[in-house]
Amino acid sequence: MRVFEYRRACTLQDAFDPAWTPIAGATDLYNLMKDRIAEPGRVVDIRGLGLSAIEPDGDGLRIGALATLAQVAGRPDVAKRWPVLAEAIAASASPQLRNMATVGGNLLQQTRCPYYRAETLLPCHRRRPGSGCSAASGDDRSLAVFPTEGPCLATHPSDPAVALAALDAVVEIAGPAGRRSLALADFLRPPDPLGEPQRLSVLERGELVVALVLPHASPHSAYVKVRDRWSYEFAVVSAAAVVEHDADGRIGAARVALGGVAAGPWRPPRAEPALAGSDPGDAAALRAALEPDFAAARPGRHNAFKVELAMRAAIDALGRA
Amino acid sequence: MNYAGAMPAGKRSTSTGCWSVNGTSLEASCDVRRSLLDLLREDFGLSGTKKGCDRGECGACTVHLDGRPVLSCLMPAVMAEHHEITTIEAIGSEDELHPLQAAFVEHDALQCGFCTSGQIMSALAFLQRDAGGGAADVRAAMSGNLCRCGAYQQIRAAVASVGASRG
Fold first, then answer.
1. Nearest to B43 by CA among B17, B71, B11
2. N or C: where does chain A have the smaller number of CB atoms within 10 Å of the terminal CB?
3. Which of A26, A31, A95 comes nearest B141 by C-beta?
4. Do the Cβ atoms of A5 and B11 come within 8 Å?
5. B9-90 with B99-166: one CATH topology?
6. Minimum mean pLDDT range among A40-54, A138-152, A180-194, A305-319
């Protein structure tokens, strides 16, 4: 590991210094530093900034970015009013990691693409832009099946992010120029006009994620995670569905987000209006509503199965929501 | 706004720190890169906490930080200052095992024993906090601790037996 300078931030201004890399839960950054995938020269500990409060915000909830995953999932109001988030967190990582990892850091964790994480340096656009993509000619099982901007096809590993996308969560960002808010989908899937595939989000250096805002209660939902083993494993694909039912039990409005299939949580754009009026128990109708968006899939050599798997996960989640 | 030099110098390379471990205040000269795990084992001689993968994948290094189980390999030691750290050395004694340790012996919940201290620390937190004791709860609570010998069923039985005896 490269030697670094460590300091605890006392004020937000301390954390806005772009020469310093923020650290909080440490679970991802410290690992990346051990493997010399990340080599920050200066690391600022932001845990003392009081950014872990979770408080009602009108009909919604404002979750401080430094609340741990365990703290969020352990709240009775989250379990009752935003159960899809509690389920997604319960399906994430392990108890120990959920006690350490923060919700803000969870969004900003790097991809689990094995070539990016390799202990020896392999061609990887995300790790070293322009160096190529080992997955393109190698094992592309974990990669996106829906087109992404830029040369990197790696997926985002977070479960909570998929639930948050379906909940229309808003990311609050603070920086030296002030505050701004973005929908989660816009935050995590940055356009790549500058050719910066190593970027995870639109966050600029010197900016911090300070909170996530859930706009309103969404009690009817489900999170379906498909993985290679039952626990302590990242998703192969996952689906979050948040549904409002009409008086006869049909889908009134639905929001769907899929994990493991794109650069970030993927919201099928045409399916959501098409799902309105569907019987949630009618798998064929749900499939018909989802199919036009799924037709955009462009899988690689080893991940075509994820298209059908994601379809079934989405149908399953909508039926259970 | 120019940030160059906005903050005073931080800790660099090696500096002295103070940690609260098992109720005792301990000082050490510590490199900023050092993990809490290495600090415990190599500087404080608390080698009951084990180093398996050193990447947060196996759970052998589980300790309690402020009463909650965490992975000491994934925490830079400097970030554990000002927190209460509890290790396996504080659980039971050579003369009197903790009921959970006794249950591991009783149920044959180990073979090589390398993962056991981490297993005990996870189980202890589960019993202290949740104590649901249902089989699914035990499995979920213990899912972050791998056992290469494959003693999972016995580990589950040992943890569940202590949960059940506490009612």
1. B17
2. N
3. A95
4. yes
5. no
6. A180-194
Whether A247 is in a domain gets the answer yes
DSSP β-ladder status, A237-245 and A251-259: antiparallel
Q: Which residues of B touch A96 (CB under 8 A)?
A: 59, 62, 69-71, 122, 144
Task: Tell me, yes or no, whether A308 lies in a domain.
Answer: yes
Residue-number span of the structural domain to which A307 is assigned: 222-320
Taking the domains of chain B in order of start, what are their residue ranges? 9-90, 99-166
**Contact of A218 with A276, CB cutoff 8 Å:** no
| Higher per-residue confidence, A126 vs A88 | A88
Taking the CB of residue B13, how many other CB atoms lie within 10 A of it? 12
pLDDT at A151: 84
Q: Return d(Cα A58, Cα A217) in angstroms, integer.
A: 10
B70 and A100 within 8 Å at the Cβ level: the answer is: yes
Residue A170 lies in a domain: no
- Which residue is closest to B70 within chain A, CA to CA? A96
- State pLDDT tens for residues A245-289: 999 999 999 999 999 999 999 999 999 999 999 999 999 999 999
In chain B, % of residues over pLDDT 90: 81
Q: Is the pLDDT of residue B2 over 60?
A: no
pLDDT tens for B48-70 read: 999 999 999 999 999 999 999 99
Residue A251 is assigned to a structural domain of this protein: yes
Task: Look at residue B26 in the predicted model and tell me its pLDDT.
Answer: 98
On chain A, the residues whose CB falls within 8 A of the CB of B76 are 6, 23, 26, 30
CATH code for the structural domain at B99-166: 1.10.150.120
Radius of gyration of chain A from Cα atoms? Answer: 19
**Is the domain defined by B9-90 classed in CATH 3.10.20.30?**
yes
Nearest CB to A31: which of B9, B32, B74? B74
